[in-house]
Specification:
Family: Belongs to the LDH/MDH superfamily. MDH type 2 family.
CATH topology of the largest domain: L-2-Hydroxyisocaproate Dehydrogenase, Chain A, domain 2
Keywords: NAD, Oxidoreductase, Tricarboxylic acid cycle
Strand order of the largest sheet: 3-2-1-4-5-6
Largest sheet: 6 strands, parallel
Shape: globular
Structural class: alpha/beta
Bound molecules: NADPH dihydro-nicotinamide-adenine-dinucleotide phosphate
Catalytic activity: (S)-malate + NAD(+) = oxaloacetate + NADH + H(+)
CATH class of the largest domain: Alpha Beta
Number of strands: 14
Number of domains: 2
Number of helices: 11
Protein name: Malate dehydrogenase
CATH superfamily of the largest domain: Lactate dehydrogenase/glycoside hydrolase, family 4, C-terminal
Radius of gyration: 19 Å
Helix content: 40-55%
Enzyme class: oxidoreductase
């Protein structure tokens, strides 16, 4: 076996962390031949819970797990790390204004970006899961000037997977027969799950569905509001599916996307599709040679344009709000 890949997970004692760590440790993210060293970052009051999770990780005796280290200091947690999964974030609590939420998260993601800049490995790849994920990723990226900007990403893979699953259910196709679904914009209720280029068994999805009212009246809102529906049903927010999406995102990033298909990820905009340069927005992306590329040349019709613009406008507002706070 090769040298262990160091993977830092923040918010490791949270519910997504609990669903994530065992899958990383068992080789499902980086492969069965790649040993992993887990580095768990938690706030001091959650370190004990993280220690409990580490004991359970030991008890699994995973052949791929090189060891587990626990930290309450970001500089130490990111030192030499290759993959950083930023899961821990400040949740919105009752009565909290958006500015307060962004400010509280700035207090987490600014020092984490600085710590990644100071000590992470040269090949570090960062995935932000903690919400508001796109803007948290932007804050971290802006404080890591020595790390290539394209190493900072935000997770929209769960939205992507939800869209694929809804389309498969509606058409009676298998998930494996669905391709080229796209999530555009922000990981929020304004996101645009787009079927215009999607295919079902090689046929245009919109032709197979043949029901515009379902697309606009059911599909798009179901995907965009799925998180709330899960909280309503389960009494807790989605955790296993969020962890699964994080695993999918990193696996695609490292090992590539299949020929002829793409996935969705929040990546730094290069101005493609009219999304202002520098924003971290979801796009259709492929991964090759360990780097994301935005799929180019897709036709965007008037209704898609309006939906992309609306979600991107929200990202611009969030960026402007954190700019006022001096966070970017
Ligand atoms: P979860 O593990 O359930 O969620 C963590 C973050 O992921 C939240 O910001 C959550 O956003 C976000 N998220 C993104 N996508 C999804 C999704 N589809 N479904 C659910 N959540 C999603 O939170 P817990 O409260 O269980 O755990 C958080 C942990 O983070 C705690 O242990 C806390 O101590 C830790 N923490 C660590 C920090 C650090 O390491 N420096 C800093 C802050 C917290 P949303 O709130 O919108 O659901």
């Amino acid at each position: 076996m090769s040298q262990p890949v160091h993977v830092t997970v923040t918010g490791a004692a949270g519910q997504i962390g609990y669903a994530l760590l065992f899958r990383i440790a068992s080789g499902q993210m980086l492969g069965a031949d790649t040993p992993v060293r887990l580095r768990l970052l938690e706030i001091p009051q959650a370190v004990k819970a993280a220690e409990g999770t580490a004991m359970e990780l030991d008890d699994c005796a995973f052949p791929t797990l090189d060891g587990v280290d626990i930290f309450d200091d970001a500089r130490a947690a990111f030192d030499g790390t290759n993959v950083a999964l930023l899961v821990g974030a400040r949740p919105r609590t009752a009565g909290m204004e958006r500015g307060d939420l962004l400010s509280a998260n700035g207090g987490i993601f600014k020092p984490q970006g600085e710590a990644i800049n100071a000590g992470a490995a040269d090949d570090v790849r960062v995935l932000v899961v903690g919400n508001p994920a796109n803007t948290n990723a932007l804050i971290a990226q802006q404080h890591a000037p020595d790390v290539p900007a394209d190493r900072f990403t935000a997770m929209t893979r769960l939205d992507h997977n939800r869209a694929v699953s809804q389309l498969a259910t509606r058409t009676g196709a298998r998930v494996a027969d669905i391709a080229r679904v796209t999530i555009w914009g922000n990981h929020s209720a304004t996101q645009y799950p787009d079927l215009s280029h999607a295919t079902v068994g090689g046929r245009p999805a919109l032709e197979v569905v043949a029901d515009d009212a379902w697309v606009t009246g059911t599909f798009i809102p179901t995907v965009a509001k799925r998180g709330a529906a899960i909280i309503e049903a389960r009494g807790a927010s989605s955790a296993a599916s969020a962890a699964n999406a994080a695993i999918d995102h990193v696996r695609s990033w490292v090992h590539g996307t299949p020929a002829g298909d793409w996935t969705s990820a929040g990546v730094v905009s290069d101005g493609s599709y009219g999304v202002p340069e520098g924003l971290i927005s979801s796009f259709p992306v492929t991964s090759e040679g360990g780097a994301w590329r935005i799929v180019q040349g897709l036709e965007v019709d008037g209704s898609s344009r309006a939906r992309i613009d609306a979600s991107v406008a929200e990202l611009v507002e969030e960026r402007d709000a954190v700019r006022v706070l001096g966070l970017v």
